[in-house]
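Treating backbone geometry as a discrete language has practical consequences that deserve illustration. No coordinates are needed to read the tokens, only the vocabulary itself. For completeness, the protein is quoted in full, as a sequence line and a line of structure tokens:
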Amino acid sequence: MKGTILVTYKILCKADLNKELTLNDLLSNEKIAKIIKSEYAKGFRNLILNAEPNESVIKIQTQKELHTFEVQKDDFADLLDLAEEDAQNKKLLKKECERVELVDIETMSTL
């Protein structure tokens, strides 16, 4: 089947932040708990904050710009190399920002 692949990637840097917290971790922080209580339960005393056991996860990540390029389906095995090459051609790779992460791969067929 002929067609193309639309590849989306982002550039990763050494100083990027990528941290995960559970909701219980967040609620156990005294400063966070105090802010929530003062905002949503003003005037009440002896309050406890807790989360359901399913442990919702909060991610804190450095916001990144997404870049795209298009290749033939035959090039699927080389997508990461092609993404790195595309980033180099667009002069996106710099000191401390030398890695590429594939974010999305979308196939587009032609009839």
In short: The helical segments are 23-27, 30-40, 79-89. The two ends are 8 Å apart (CA to CA). The beta strands are 3-12, 18-22, 57-61, 67-72, 99-109.
